[in-house]
Amino acid sequence: MSVEAAQPADFAQPSYLDSGHTIRSWLLTTDHKRIAMMFLASITFWFFIGGMAATLVRLSLATPDGLLQPDIFNRAFTMHGIIMVWLFLIPSIPATLGNFFVPIMIGAHDLAFPRLNLLSLYVFNLSGLVVLYAVLLGGVDTGWYFYTPYSTLYSNSYVFAAAMAIFINGYSSILTGLNFVVTVHKLRAPGMTWSRLPLFVWAIYAVSVVMLLATPALAMDMILLGADRIMGLGMFDPSRGGDPLLWQHMFWFYSHPAVYIMILPGMGVVSEVISCYSRRPIFGYGGMATSMMAIAVLGFFVWAHHMFTAGISIYSAVVFSLMSFVVGVPSAIKVFNWTVSLHKGSIIFDAPMIYAIGFILLFTIGGLTGLMLATLAVDIHVHDTYFVVAHFHYIMVGGAVSAFFAGLHYWWPKITGRLYPEAVARFTALLTFVGFNVTFFPQFVLGYLGMPRRYYAYPPQWQSWNVLSSAGASILAVAYALPLFYLGWSLLYGKRAGPNPWGATGLEWTTPSPPPEHNFAVTPVVTLGPYSYDPEDGSYRTQDGTHYAL
Amino acid sequence: MPSEYTVEPHIQYASLEHQGDSAQDCMWVFLATETVFFGAIIFTYFLYRVFYSAEFDVAGKDAVFWCGSVNIGILLTSSLTMVLAVNSGAQGRRRAMIWWLIATMALGFIFMAVKGYEYYQDFTDRVVPAVNFLMKPEEAPAGELFWDFYWIATALHAIHLTIGLALIAYVLLWRIRRGEITPEYYQPLEVIAIYWSFVDTVWLFLYPSIYLLGRS
Amino acid sequence: MYHWMPFWPRTAANTGHAINSLFVAELALSLAVLAMVVGMIASFGFVYRRGSAASRADLTKKTWHFEIGWTSATFLLFLVAFIWGSYVYIWAYQTPPGNLEIYVVAKQFMWKFEHPGGQREIDTLHVPAGQSIRLVLASEDVIHALYIPAFRLQRDVIPGTYETLWFKAERPGTYRLECAEFCGTQHAHMDGAVIVMPPPDYARWLAERGIHESLAEQGEKLFRARGCSGCHGANSTVHAPSLVGVYGTLVHLQDGTVRRADEKYLRECILNPRSFTVAGYPPVMPDFSGQLSEDDLIELIAYIRSLNSQNAGSAP
């Protein structure tokens, strides 16, 4: 298949997995690829812990009176939110796939600051330990947004511990973001101009900008919350001059951009996958890159759409509604561009592609319902109901988690040097799609019927929908557990992968699978943009200019 | 005193200059995050000040004006000595660089001493919320909020200053002593100087907010 | 009107109909967009599957035309939805003076409803159909939210201030009422019912509750007992603003700002008088923060409102 190997010298070096076999060489590594793998281990662990919390919630909701004690239920959904947001979704793609591939995709030998990268891993794991500490003490029951004054004055749970855990976790995000921004600014290989960057790199860059500008506000929020809680300061206590709504503004100022942190990297992955499995350039590269940056910036101006019923001024609500619609425009552009990227392609439905197409469909549904929520009058009815829960799970789980699995499968051969079993993976991808919809679509109905969120019990007439949702959750649980098994199997028994099993065009596919410690023996010179696929004759060119026939 | 120590850039960098540029880029980006961090609390403080201007004016009168004012003079001077240190480093005047750095550290320590004395005064004045606080009737109930912000913001500032002092100590005792700071490559010093100026800038915002507003 | 849709929840108030129409329009539009995306993916996926004979020649190079096209169309549709939604929101949330005012106090984990005639109910709210009902919402502790799905209406109840909500119920019946903001352990059981009755039945229900002192009468007692009449009463020698006819008027404060004297303003004056000293008056009013419960405040405010009717021509 290949006409010439681009980097013959690379193939003589040991892979990153083989350079050093001691525990010390892993725990004190500065290799971005090893750090990415350690992050992968951590976030996988947290995905399953957060998933167990979700299992408790859905099991309990199968009956109208609830199976769990209310206090336990309240802690379960809160811990589910905290763990999934900060210990899984936010780091998932950036700290694993981003860490692994951004340097290679731009032709660099490592990230700009490898030791900061290692620090980010340890800070992340420390925050996880503090979360475990909070859980073992008894957990938090305030909901992941800690609304005051319930969280500061009334809750009998470990708010301070949780706040400190999140504060620490924020620094992991900030360090990661710092590293990516400077890496993309300064370490691009010769010829790798901004307009030749793969869309995954653009996505990671956009996400890093958001992480850097939003997370410090979260850090300050947690300091104020923790101080108020532990010292009884009364900053959010109306009887002492405080304003409960101020907390909401400060919290959402971070947390709305945070949701864009959770989806932008997935958008980058989907662009890579769709291009490769359609064998054609992505439609409208410029629009795709610009729209991701636009989402990153505009995402800072919409936070009060979480507060439409909270008593903010009617006219400010109108402004925030308009901005929320405006931020939907770039997302719509992306959905259309991805769809049209299938036109005149040469499409193959391998597992990454099934996950990517699933992403487009589920993200579209999530996004359309997001527009309904941005519509002020509709939000009056569905705010704080299961409609919102369904909306954000469509984006974060149907979208971001599907994209994560798409990327994990797509890059699996590069990361591990092994091919995963395609048939099982395809089945799992389809099962995920089915299980997801059975779990979350009924929640849209429940929300419009008027079932509020965070309810451990509900009137019996809503039971059928809840049971359907819980049944779907069990399918989803199987679909999420399966990759552990077959990907694990592939590590031992999977077919060994060549450097470019999918015939993709990024620089990462010019290195061996897995790559050596410093990625390239000689810094590559880039002469082409990304996605130089020619669907007419099936040939393609990697970004260093090497031409490959079908 | 080693004079021919050669520093190699790390493998991901094409040259020392490349590495130094990246370090500077990093510090500026990091300071953007710090701006949002301190900006959040300063913004919240101003929000409450607008709601409760009368109470905040009353509360603010107990702030120890001379301490805050002396401290801004000290910090501004320390920024000057820091810049002089970097200039000396860039020109290869090693002894001058070391002495200017020591001067900067000394000024930093004086700041902390004055701040420590001020905190002691605040304690005896009973303006420490949750620890030793006496609410005056004219400032009830929101006057305590002024002090909440005062303590949190100045404590965070002091922590950042301490980190700055540690960084100067590091560059003196580690990098300069090993001769790694030369006119060809003095980026670590430059980066620390940028950070130090930021710590100074934060005080430029805290000082008028705490000590000047309402005091007329 | 939409009851033919499967699983469609009942609609029983004017706000509900407006919101229904908007939602159904958005639902229809969303289904159309989704169908288009699904259709395109399915057809492209089939026609351009690997190995199919379809031509891949002449890939579109100038993508801008399409992108500008679908971006503008999208944005226009968004603007329509935004304007429609804002219009209904402003109408639904700007509470007009109602035919009937009911005070609501939320606390963990129950709702107290206080009718102006002094009738009190817990967790159940009786209202007459066909009249504009104005609710004044107060919380004794944390943030709650009053949510009536059949009216498609909810509003957060924030401690330390008042929110208002209004509706006109059309169809007599019993409708679920819930708390929609997480407030603690029994948040899921902070529910109740709104019972909409034809006006004669409502009047009969009020009468059946027994003769009560109205809220305003209870407020007058409190006004004297707490010493308010010492300064604000008709025979007072202290220079204090008169409260007769003040409700709903514009008040000029010492710091130059102007406020409308609604429930929220009156509450703030009672609890934090120093920040709301009226221009031309000495700042000597003692503050009552911590001494009055939400119920007390509601009674006082109801009394102050009733002083308007003693002063002809002072309506806002």
Describe the structure in your own words:
The complex is a heterotrimer of chains A (550), B (216) and C (316). Helices cover 65% and strands 1% of the residues of chain A. By secondary structure, chain A is mostly helical. Chain A has one domain (8-548): Cytochrome c oxidase-like, subunit I domain (Cytochrome C Oxidase, Chain A), CATH 1.20.210. A three-stranded antiparallel beta sheet of chain A has the order 1-2-3, with no helix packed on it. In chain A, a hairpin with a 6-residue loop joins strand 1 (532-533) and strand 2. In chain A, helix 2 (32-60) runs parallel beside helix 4 and helix 8 (244-278) crosses helix 13. The model of chain A is unreliable at 1-5 (pLDDT under 50). In chain B, strand 1 and strand 2 form a beta hairpin. Chain B has helices at 16-51, 53-60, 65-90, 94-124, 143-176, 187-212; strands at residues 127-128, 132-133. Chain B has a two-stranded antiparallel sheet. The longest helix of chain B has 36 residues, at 16-51. Chain C has 316 residues and is an alpha+beta fold. Chain C has three domains: 14-48 and 61-93; 100-208, Immunoglobulin-like (Sandwich); 215-310, Orthogonal Bundle (Cytochrome Bc1 Complex, Chain D, domain 2). Chain C is 35% helix and 20% strand. Chain C is built from seven helices and twelve strands. A five-stranded mixed beta sheet of chain C has the order 3-2-1-5-8, covered by helices on one side. A five-stranded mixed beta sheet of chain C has the order 4-10-9-6-7. In chain C, helix 1 packs antiparallel against helix 2 (64-93) and helix 4 (215-225) packs across helix 7 (294-306). The longest helix of chain C has 34 residues, at 14-47. Chain C is elongated. Mean pLDDT of chain C is 90; it is low at 312-316. The chains are: A mainly alpha (550), B mainly alpha (216), C alpha+beta (316). Chains in contact: A-B, A-C, B-C. Chains A and C meet through helix 3, helix 5, helix 8, helix 10 and helix 11 of A and helix 1, helix 2, strand 7 and strand 9 of C.
